[in-house]
Amino acid sequence: MVRQTGRADQTTTVGEVTSAVDRHPHLAAPCPDGWVRVDLHSHTMWSGDSTTTPEEIERAVVDSCIDVLCITDHNAIAGAVELADRLTCRVVVGEEMRTSAGELIGLFLTERVPMGAPPAETARLIRDQGGVVYVPHPFDPMRRHLAADALVELVNDGLVDAMEVLNAKTSLASLNRRAEAFATHHGLHAGAGSDAHVPDAIGAAYVEMPDFDGPGEFLEHLPLGRVVGHHWDQARPWTPRIVPSTSRG
Predict the structure, then answer these.
(1) Which three-class secondary structure state does DSSP give residue 61?
(2) What is the DSSP letter of 201?
């Protein structure tokens, strides 16, 4: 079930609203003991369409209380690898790669997956390195979502592990609901991510789930989790800043 949150939960009591306002705008109630908040979809300056620097990521994960950040830069894993030893939260190395029929995400990667291959080949390349195949923003026409026929073919071939049923950048809630219905109908695990391209977006959508060690436990525990979040696609406040150059990889 998707649990929508806002800057203050309007269904709570007056005292609870006050405490909600005091918390970071993307946080709902605290996690149960032994659970973690996992943002399954985020971007850094290695993506090309994001300018979020390592220093900004460091501050954002502390402010948002995200426990596990899946860094899924476009066609690159170098940023995730570099940040894995730098952030206070755990990092899952991922990549959002463009296939010949739209975008797929691989999680728990050890090698970059080349762009441009057919979806089935891309999914197998993810699986071959022990990774998790995750479908982002499946029905959002504003994004390079996976074509409907390609998605159905992947699912029928058993090549999808999880689907993003809450993407914080997707402006129409009906599109997220459609993704949730599709995932439920096809027995796919439900995931959620901020799709953050600016630091303040990190943690706008995430999964609360029992803690895990590696991709196997991640897939075992994900169905036990709760999808939490809300739409958030605000522009970065202007500040003077320098974004370091980086080679994507």
Answers:
(1) helix
(2) G
| CA-based max dimension of the chain | 53
> Is 234 domain-assigned?
no
Per-residue pLDDT of the chain (249 residues; tens, 9 = 90+): 555 444 333 332 333 333 344 557 787 778 899 999 999 999 999 998 888 999 999 999 999 999 999 999 999 999 999 999 999 999 999 999 999 999 999 999 999 999 999 999 999 999 999 999 999 999 998 888 999 999 999 999 999 999 999 999 999 999 999 999 999 999 999 999 999 999 999 999 999 999 999 999 999 999 999 999 999 988 766 666 666 767 645
Is residue 19 assigned to a domain? no
DSSP state of 73: -
4 occurs within a structural domain: no
The residues, ordered by sequence, that sit 6+ positions from 45 with a Cβ below 8 Å of its Cβ are 51, 52, 53, 79, 243, 244, 246
10, part of any domain: no
Can you read off the two tokens belonging to residue 148?
């409907």
The boundaries of the domain holding residue 194 are 34-229
Q: How many domains does the chain have?
A: 1
Statement: the pTM of the whole predicted model exceeds 0.85: yes
Q: Which helix (H) or strand (E) holds 236?
A: none
**CATH code of 151's domain:** 3.20.20.140
